[in-house]
Amino acid sequence: MKRLTALLAIVVIAGLVASCAPPTPEKVVETVVVTKVVEKPVEVTKIVEKPVEVVVTPTPVPKPAVYKAAGGWTKPPAYHGSKFAPGGVGCAHWYVFEPLFYYVPASGDVIMALAESFEEGKDAFTVKLRKDVKWHDGKPFTSKDVWSTFQLRYLQNAGIWKFLDKVETPDDYTVIFRWKEPTALAKPLIAGEVISAPYHLYGKWADKVDLTVPPDEEPNKSVMEDLSNFKPEFPIGTGPFKMTKVTASEMILDKFADHYKAKNVHFDKVVVLPWPNNEVVWAYLMAGEVYRAHPATPKDTTEAIMARQPGMKLALPSDLAQFGIGFNMRVKPFSDENFRKAIAHAINRKKLREITYYYAGDVDKYAHNVLTSMEERWLSKELLDSLTVYDYDPAKAEAMLKDLGFTKGADGNWLDPDGNPLQWEVNCPAGYSDWVLACDELAAQLTEFGIPTECRPIENAIYWPGATAGKYNVMLLWSSCWWGYAHPWRGFYRIFFGDTGKRIGCPPKLTGPDGTEVDLDELVTKMGATFDEAELKKLVETAAWICNEHMLELPYCEKKLMEFHNTAYVQGWPDVNDPLWSLAAGGAERADVVMMVQGLLKPAAK
Amino acid sequence: MLVILRRIGIALFTIFVIVTLTFFIVRKTPGDVMQAWAMDLLDTYSMTYEDALAMVKSWYGYNPNQPMLQQYIAYISGLLKGDLGKSFIYKVSVNKVLIRALPWTVFVLSVSLLLSFGIGVMLGMAMAWKRKSILDPLVTAYASFTGATPDYITALILLIIFAVNLRLFPLKGAYDATVNPGFTWEFIKSVLKHAALPIAAYTFEHAASWALAMKGSAVGVLGEDYIMAARARGLKERRIMIHYMGRNAILPLVTSLAISMGSMVGGSTLIETVFSYPGVGWFFGEALTKRDFGLMQGLFLFLASSIIFANLAADILYSILDPRIKLEG
Fold first, then answer.
1. Which of B27, B35, B299 to mutate: most A Cβ within 10 Å?
2. What pLDDT does A509 receive?
3. What b-and-e string marks burial along A412-438, b requiring 16 or more CB atoms within 10 Å of the CB?
C-alpha cells in the first residue's frame, strides 16, 4: 500500500513538473519514400526495394514579430470598444485610433497621420484628408467620420469646444474647423483628438447632437445616455493595429494590413500585459516580458533592471508636469507672500526630488511655472536673471521670518507674531509612493527648521475635493501641467484658475513686473489667442514673473517619464534625447505608434 | 427541521439588514469620486482636468439628486427578482461580473484554503504533540512573519523568484491567451500553471494561522481523559495523535473553515492584483476606489450572503460531526 502511494505520488509530481516545463517546440517532419538498390553477394542477384525515411527540414514558418508593452484596461465583462462609454478601449487607444496629425511637444513639429496637409488661419483651420485610409471593418474613411467624432466629443465637453464653433465638411476629404475666436492652440488642440467615431457606426448619435444647447441639456443629455449604452466588442479605428482579443491578462492587437503605411510597420502583433502596479511592471521588465514601459522606478530598482537586461536603455522625456507644494493663500500666515517666500528658502527641493523621484528633473531655483525642460524655449535670459531665486538657505529663511515678526521659542520652534507656535500638517493623496515620500520628507524638513509638521496622506476621493474646497493649508499637488495642449497657456490656466488655482486660492488680479495690476484671466486669454510669437513670449514672461515673484506655489521637481526600452528585442529606438520621446507624455503608446509607422522600430535580429 | 428553518429565517433577516445598511453606508462614504476619477484620467488620456471631469460626469450613472428612498425601493425590488444591481461606472450587471469572475476566484481560493487548512492542521497537531521540539518556535516565527507581511508582499516575492528568475510559472493571468478555453489538456495545463503562484501565495500566507489555531485546540484536547485512557490501553502514538487528538481538536476549526469558505467569494484583491488574476477581488478593488456604489453593494451583498450561509452550514455540520452539540433556535 505504501509503495503504491509512493508510486502515485511520483506520478503526480512528475505530472506537475511536466506541466510546468516550457512547451516543446513543434517540429514538422515530412516522410519521403525513396528507392534504394541494394546489391548482395549471392548466387542470384536480387533487387530489393526498401522504403527509407528521410527527414527533410522544410523552410521554417516565420514566427510573428510581436511587440510587447504593458498598460491598463477594464477587465471583461466590463471591457468594450467604445471611447464614449466608461470601460472602453483602454490603453489600446493610440494603437487603434489616430489623430489627424501628431504634435511633438518638445520640438513643436507636426507629423501627419490621417491628414495629408492643413492650412492654419485665424478663423478657420482647414485639413485635407488622406484618400487611402480604411476603418478596421473595411469601410472607407471620409470627412464625415471626423465630423461625427467632434460632434460626440461636444457631448463630453471636450476642451477643444471652448474654441471650436463648428466642424464643416465641404467634401469627402476636406474638414474645416471654424473657431469662435482666433486661437494659436489649434495644432495641439486638434492633435489631441483621435478620430474614433466612424459615421457608419456612430452617425445616428452624431446627427442628433445640438450644438446650440449645452451638453448636459436636452436633447444632448439623452443622446449621451443612449450613446453610453453602445458597447461594441472591440474598437473600430483606422490605426496600424486592430484589436483581436482581450482577456483579463492580455490584450492582443494584430497588424492592420490595409493601413496606409502598413509597409512601414514591422510588427505583426502587439501584446499588452496588464499594469496592476509599478512593482509588477518592474518584474515584467526584468524578465524581458515587455519591451517598453514607463513605471516610476527608484534608483536601485532601475539599476537592477538595467543589470538584468543588458540591452535595456532609459529615455527620460518630460511628462509635461511638475510636482509642487501648495499653500492655502486664503488663511494667515500663508496669505502673506513674504512668508511663503521665507518658507521656500527653508525647503531643500533637490533633496525632496532625490528622495521622492530620483529620475525627475530638478526644479530648485525658481517658482515661475514654466516647465524647466521648456525654460530655454519660452523665457529669456534677461527675465531669468531678474527673477528671485528660491535656493535652499535656512539662514535666509530665518532672517526673513524674523523680519516678519516671527520668533523662535525656547524649544527652538517658531512662534508667530502673536506668540502662537507654528504647527502644521502636510497633506497628500494616499496610495502613491512618490506623493507620500515627498510628504514625509517635507514634514521632516519643516520640523528640522523649527515648524513641527506631520505628514497626513488622505484617500484620493477625499483628498482632491478637500483641497479644492480649501481644507488643507500645506499640500502636495500637481503644479504646472501642460498635459493636453503642451503649451504654457495650459500651465498658467491651471495655476491661475484651474484645479491648482482653486486649491491654493489664487486671487484674480496680481501686480505685474511693471508694478501695475494684471487681470490674470485677460492675460491667459490673450496667451491662448495670439499668433504673434513675440507677443506670446512677452505674455508668458509676464505670467512667469507673477508666479515667481508672488510665490504662488513651490514646484519641487519636473516629472520625467522613465521610458525603459529594450534593444535586445526591438531595434531602431530613437536616441534617448530625441524629441519623439516627448510624444509619450500623456500617451506612451502614441510614441510607440509614431515610431512604428515611421518605420523606425523593428524586431531585433537574434 | 423546524430549527433549521428558523435558522434560515434569521439568516435571511440578517441579509436584509445588511442590504439596507450597506445601501445607505456606501452612499454616505465621504469624498467626491468624480474628482478623483478625473485626476486618474488626466495622464491616461492626455487631457486637461476640466475635460476629464466633464467626461467623468457624462459617464457616471449615479444621480445623487434622486431621492434615497426611491433608489432603495428600486434596488430592493431588483433584488427580489434576482438582480444584484448594476455597476454605475461600467454599466454592466453585477450578476454578469460574478458569472465571469467568480469561478476563477472559487477555484484558486478553494484549493488554497483547503491546502492551507490541511498543512496548518498537520503542523498544529505535530506542534501540540511534540511541544518542546524545534517545530514550535519555527512555526510560531513563520506565523509572525506571515501575520506581519501583507499577502501582496508574499505574492511579489513568489512572482520574482518563480516567474522572473526561475521562469517556471507565468507572470500573469488565468490561462495563456493563445489557448482556447475548453475541456482540453492544453487548457487545463495552462490553467494549473497560471494558478500555481496565486495558490502558493495564499497557502503560504494562511497555513501558519491554521497551525496555531490547531495547536491551541489540540493542546486543550491532550489533557482529556480519553487521551490518557488511550495511552493506558497501549495504543500506538500515531493512532492517538490522529484519531484521538486530531479528530477532536479539529472540530472548533470547522466553523472557521466554513466562514473562510464563505468569505473567499470576495476574492483576494491583493493577490489577484499582483498576478492579474481575473477574479472577484479585482472588481472589489475597482468598486471601492472608484466608489462604484452599484458594484460595491452588489458584491458586498453576495459576500455577506455567502458568509451567513456558510456559517449556517457550519452550525448544521457541527451538530452532525459532534453529537454532543445540538442545534437550538
1. B35
2. 95
3. eebbbeeeeebebebbbbeebebbbbb
